[in-house]
Amino acid sequence: MVTYPRIHFGMEKLYNFIDGKLVEPGKSNYLPNINPAEGVAYNLVPDSDAQDVAEAVKAARFAFASWSAMPLDQRAAILSKIADLIDRDLDQLALAESIDQGKPFKLAKSMDIPRASANMRFYATASMHFASESHHMEGEAVNYTTRTPIGVAGCISPWNLPLYLFTWKIAPALAAGCTVVAKPSELTPMTAFLFSKLCIEAGLPNGVLNIVHGLGHKVGQAIVEHPDVLVISFTGGTVTGKTIAATAAPMFKKLSLELGGKNPNIIFADCDFEQALNTSIQSSFSNQGEICLCGSRILVERSIYEKFVDEFVKRTKELVVGDPLEDKTRVGALVSEAHMKKVLSYIDLAKTEGGKILCGGKRITMSGRCEQGYFVEPTVIIDLDQYCRTNQEEIFGPVVTIMPFDKEEEAIAYANSNAYGLSATIWTENLKRAHRVSHQVKSGIIWVNCWLLRDLRTPFGGMKQSGVGREGGWEAIRFFTETKNVCIKF
Ligand code: TXE
């Protein structure tokens, strides 16, 4: 068990990071920041507004000329230095992430924080290899294409993988030569605040990255509305994505929207049963099911359906739900009381829709320091129709449904019977089937015989209501650039 650092995390104030300085919000308003495992406030997050955003944009605009002109190796060295500092502070950042978000400390230490430094390092080095194209028209002309940084980028990130997704946006923006005004979720501001201190230590020039904390409809909206923020990268709920798109579209801003998912996990009878089972437990309940890539609809070929359901329920019951700081904990607290209520309301809905709860289904009341925390039992539901709301809407919690199918075409139709199209997992030992099904499932990311195996060079994002655009690799760097073609006649 990790020692809980009460002294460090008393009701301290977090600060915005504007023009290289840690500053109070202009009106000195703060919001309580809740530790979800305890259900109590433990520090104060700035309740900033449009004026704070305006200050941040002004600093970012000013910094743009020198940052975008800085030699690539110098820019890369600063971003790499930030990655090194994240590695140095791994324990402190993982602890902060666990306390702020409710996720197991072990998960934050093994996944979230290492990925945050990987994001910084990946794009630091990528910036030095970035190149644009040229096209020759034989004997007639040559075209060359330039991709130059757009200007000030707005990066808005969610609460489920706080530092992981925050850095996933700002790293390519900074590497491309943009300056940034960023907003982490008001529910999980802590690691972004610590990150701002690391940027100062790494010598990031003033104004290159600005972090404004606060509510989505105030700070987030002000970033999207600001005429000098030319490009917006957002990860969060689909409803919020629609609001952002509606605001940004009339201003012709460039948009990348990574939204929700309701991902199918298709298990054929010819799979490696043990692997499919083990990984499906992870893809269902990792991070309390609060990952947009979690497989929340498990489709199982009928000949192994009963066996799979029995084993899956048995292993689900073995998962230790509890204090995120304890080593044995596999499932921690949900991020907020409101989110816990939303998840529980979907379990109630599933019952009214005819679902049978095989395990879980309730809030858990812990003893000791976590007695007011937001814990929900990992929940497995069967007997639901494909088209019911439980199977159509994103729950984003430790809740999965399992459904049988008879034929491959049926599995594909079920997988596609949803407005979302972020990711899908396919379990089969038949190579031809793996290709066939991968080709037909309408999702931006397909994993065959694995889940969440990430190569940062690959395009990342969803189809349909899961978003617009792709992150990752060159796609993300190109996104933050403006393209120009120059045609020169011989
Ligand atoms: O996210 P929001 P919420 C899904 C999940 C969840 C639902 C709602 O199903 O239950 O979305 O979650 C900022 N302009 N995902 O409401 O509001 C906000 O402050 C600009 C999936 O908590 O989308 C935060 O920084 N910004 C998801 C960020 O948007 C605005 C991860 C995301 O919060 C804004 C999170 C506005 N008008 C939730 N309103 C994923 N795809 O990983 C809010 N924000």
Small-molecule binders here are: ligand TXE
Strand content is: 15-25%
Structural class: alpha/beta
Shape: globular
By CATH, the topology of the largest domain is: Aldehyde Dehydrogenase, Chain A, domain 1
The Cα radius of gyration reads 23 Å
How would a textbook summarize the main sheet?
A: 7 strands, mixed
C-alpha end-to-end distance: 71 Å
Overall pLDDT confidence: 97
Task: Provide the CATH top-level class of the largest domain.
Answer: Alpha Beta
Order of strands across the main sheet: 15-18-19-14-13-21-22
What's the helix count? 15
Please state the second-level CATH architecture of the largest domain. 3-Layer(aba) Sandwich
Number of domains: 2
Give the oligomeric state of the chains in this entry, treating copies of one chain as homo and distinct chains as hetero. single chain
Could you name the CATH homologous superfamily of the largest domain? Aldehyde Dehydrogenase, Chain A, domain 1
User: How many individual β-strands?
Assistant: 25
Helix content: 40-55%
Low-confidence stretches: 5-9
Write the layout of secondary structure elements.
Layout: E1 12-13, E2 16-18, E3 21-23, E4 30-35, E5 40-46, H1 50-69, H2 72-88, H3 90-101, H4 105-129, E6 134-137, E7 141-149, E8 152-156, H5 162-176, E9 179-183, H6 190-202, E10 209-211, H7 216-225, E11 229-235, H8 238-248, E12 254-258, E13 263-267, H9 273-285, E14 295-301, H10 302-318, H11 337-352, E15 356-359, E16 363-364, E17 375-376, E18 379-382, H12 389-392, E19 399-405, H13 408-416, E20 420-421, E21 423-427, H14 431-440, E22 445-448, E23 463-464, E24 467-468, H15 473-479, E25 481-489
Bound molecules: ligand TXE.
